[in-house]
Amino acid sequence: MLDSAKEHSVAFLVVGDPFGATTHTDLQIRAHQKGIKVEVIHNASILNAVGACGLQLYRYGEAVSIVFFTETWQPDSFYDRILSNRKQGLHTLCLLDIKVKEPSLESLARGKKVYEPARFMTVNTAIEQLLQVEASRNLGAFGKDSLAIGVARIGSPSQQIVAGTMQELLDVDFGEPLHSLILAGDMHVIETEFLEQFTVKRSS
């Protein structure tokens, strides 16, 4: 792509804001090193669109990514960041795993790529995994009675926002992807009032 951009106009379209991923930052650095002019057109991102749930953006701490667990791989490095946010009273935005055009491990072992069907983590799966990690770490970052907000398809006509305890959200059908999860920190009175319209009872 960079080689083509030396002589032609090249467009690179991404989901979300271009600088929401370090890959795109690296791409601009390499373009600059090659003397290629870059023009960035910013886009909506879950990092700011999540404000639709009513929690104030400046009251969020570090965002975390939750990946699909397997039988042999269950990373929990996100837990310490959630715990840190919680100790500071800050909300945590959890970005949920997306697997698109992922080769299966079996096909890689055979030396021939066979891609698995696309998978998008749901709010429900994320909560199940988070509670599993809390049961193991047991440091009180969150629990089944913690306030959380599940969001789906934010910015679309069918967007869905539901607030409740983590236990309550386990039983909510959030429908089609993409999903994200917010773990609430200390709540301001305005946030609480705004969130009332999205509680499980009102959404059911």
Given the structure, what is the number of helices? Answer: 9
- Structural class call reads alpha+beta
Major β-sheet profile: 5 strands, mixed
What's the shape? globular
Q: What is the string of SSEs from the N terminus onward?
A: HHHEHEEHEHEEHEHH
Write out the strand line-up for the largest beta sheet, numbering strands in chain order.
Answer: 1-2-7-5-6
Q: What share of residues are in beta strands?
A: 5-15%
The whole-angstrom Rg is 19 Å
**Mean of residue pLDDT values:** 91
Task: Describe the protein's architecture and organization.
It is a single chain. It is globular and about 55 Å long. It has helices at 2-5, 22-33, 46-49, 78-87, 105-109, 123-137, 166-169, 189-195, 200-203; strands spanning 64-66, 92-96, 98-99, 119-120, 147-152, 160-165, 179-183. It starts with a helix and ends with a helix. It has 204 residues and is α+β, with helices and mostly antiparallel strands. It has 9 helices and 7 strands. The strands form 2 sheets. It has a 5-stranded mixed β-sheet with strand order 1-2-7-5-6. Strands 3-4 form a two-stranded antiparallel sheet. Helices cover 32% and strands 14% of the residues. The mean pLDDT is 91.
